[in-house]
Specification:
Blueprint lengths: L2 H7 L8 E2 L4 H12 L6 E5 L5 H9 L4 E5 L3 H7 L4 E3 L13 E7 L7 H11 E13 L3 H11 L6 H10 L2 E8 L2 E2 L3 H10 L3 E9 L9 E5 L3 H9 L1 H5 L4 E5 L5 H11 L5 E5 L2 H8 L1 E3 L8 H5 L7 E3 H19 L4 E3 L4 H4 L12 E3 L7 H10 L30 H8 L4 H28 L2
Parallel strand pairs: 2-3, 2-5, 3-4, 5-6, 10-11, 10-15, 11-12, 13-14, 15-16
Antiparallel strand pairs: 1-8, 6-9, 7-9
Helix pairs in contact: 2-3, 9-16
């Protein structure tokens, strides 16, 4: 006997372990009240099971038109009495665009990639249509693994699914915990496993086009924030979201290790190239303070033998500009980054005419939230954070700027063979600055 038949024989016709009311009839009534659909509305149930939800809702609202989608032919045969059926993958139904007023996904998201399901739901819904998510969730990587091993069901974190819904063009309308447990021995036997999951019911409204239907890219640096962003959007990455990383030619070894691990599972990893060492040879050492004499125009007039560039000039030339140009070349419409206000204090606002939209999923996260997130997903964190005093990891191993980051201590602990070269660079900068400070002191003395 199939597991569905056992559950049905014990009063679990909807094949869900929790619901909004004590009875399945009460659950259907509560769902319809929350949806408040117009007369004659069209509803599609993605991963419909045996169609029990459509059956119960049809008793209360016989005017609704149901389309039931499932890849399980046996289940779909049971559902055929309650609506039009489609033996199709719920992430690729083949149904007409914007032809439904509501989409229901109940205990089904774990059998597919949620990004593909969100994209399909957005495609099927008219603007203003409702999306119902009735799912199991967990933030814990061990519990997520349990779901796959025991149930063959991929349990996602509620925060992740909420973000994917938002990126899919949906605004949250209502959310609650479905506190009523289904009856029967089968449910009780499974309780030790199922009670480890969170379970929520939510209603979302389609407010705008889905980002999943646009050409998007995730910009990855290998630091903790971009790593968290990568794993937060892992379902989208696994569904084909391109991940771009800039190799400056001088990336610190710890970051190279993180990048190497990402390459093992990211299907579309794209590398952008720069040569920061050659660039510095031509333009000068990056410094947090640059004198007029040491700039390129000072060099033209032979005002000093020391060539210096601002820290952001070097970053712009070897990190930002190559990445930006690649976005333009590849026709990217949406850029996703791990930028946080906790790092910058302010994020430049978008302006009309910008070549692409920028999405910042971690914008309001704290540093500790990032670390907690990575730990909860059992994501290996770069060893640099164990020794580097700054909350942000260095980009280039031979950089002589970013003096407030504590790079000296980092090099002493992890790369002592680089300390002497780093010291020489700093001393070169200091000698140039000292000459100008002496000139400044003399000028101050003249007017004192």
């Amino acid at each position: 006997m199939r597991n569905e038949q056992i559950l049905q024989s014990q009063g679990v016709q909807m094949l869900t372990y929790w619901r909004l009311a004590e009875s399945e009839e009460g659950h259907a009534r509560a769902l319809l009240a929350l949806l408040d659909l117009p007369v004659g509305a069209c509803v599609v149930d993605l991963g419909c099971g045996t169609g029990r939800l459509a059956e119960l809702c049809s008793v209360v609202r016989p005017d609704l038109h149901w389309t039931l989608v499932n890849v399980d032919e046996w289940q779909l045969q049971q559902a055929a009495r309650w609506g039009t059926t489609a033996l199709r993958d719920m992430a690729d139904t083949g149904l007409p665009d914007e032809s439904f007023d509501a989409v229901v996904v109940a205990y089904a998201m774990g059998y597919s990639n949620p990004v593909l399901v969100m994209r399909e739901a957005s495609r099927l819904l008219r603007t203003g249509g409702k999306l119902v998510l009735h799912e199991l969730y967990s933030e814990d990587a061990k519990v997520q693994k349990l779901g796959v091993e025991v149930l063959n069901f991929r349990v996602h974190a509620a925060r992740d699914i909420g973000l994917l819904a938002e990126l899919g063009g949906f605004d949250l309308v209502y959310a609650c915990t479905d506190t009523f447990q289904a009856p029967g021995d089968a449910v009780e036997e499974a309780a030790p496993i199922f009670h480890q999951f969170d379970h929520f019911f939510s209603v979302h409204i389609k407010a705008r086009p889905s980002l999943f239907a646009r050409r998007a890219a995730l910009q990855f640096s290998g630091g903790k924030d971009s790593l968290a962003c990568l794993h937060l959007l892992r379902p989208w990455v696994e569904a084909g979201l391109p991940v771009y990383w800039t190799c400056t030619g001088d990336t610190i070894p710890e970051t190279l290790a993180v990048v190497g691990e990402a390459r093992t599972w990211v299907p579309d990893f794209r590398e952008v190239h720069a040569d920061v060492l050659a660039w510095k040879q031509a333009h000068g050492l990056p410094s947090d303070v640059v004198t007029a004499q040491a700039t390129w125009i000072g060099q033209v007039y032979g005002m000093t033998d020391t060539k210096l560039v601002g820290r952001f000039d070097c970053c712009q030339a070897n990190l930002m500009q190559p990445m930006h140009q690649r976005m333009l070349t590849d026709g990217v419409e949406v850029v996703i980054r791990g930028t946080k206000l906790a790092d910058t204090g302010k994020v430049p606002q978008a302006t009309p005419g910008d070549p692409y939209e920028v999405v910042l999923p971690l914008l309001n996260w704290s540093h500790e939230q990032v670390f907690d997130f990575l730990r909860s997903r059992a994501v290996p964190i770069s060893a640099v954070y164990d020794s580097f005093k700054s909350i942000s990891a260095p980009e280039c191993l031979h950089c002589t700027a970013w003096w407030d980051d504590g790079k000296g201590a980092y090099l002493k602990q992890l790369h002592p063979d680089k300390v002497d070269q780093y010291r020489v660079g700093l001393q070169t900068i200091r000698a140039e600055l000292q000459r100008r400070v002496q000139e400044l002191d003399m000028e101050i003395k003249e007017v004192s």
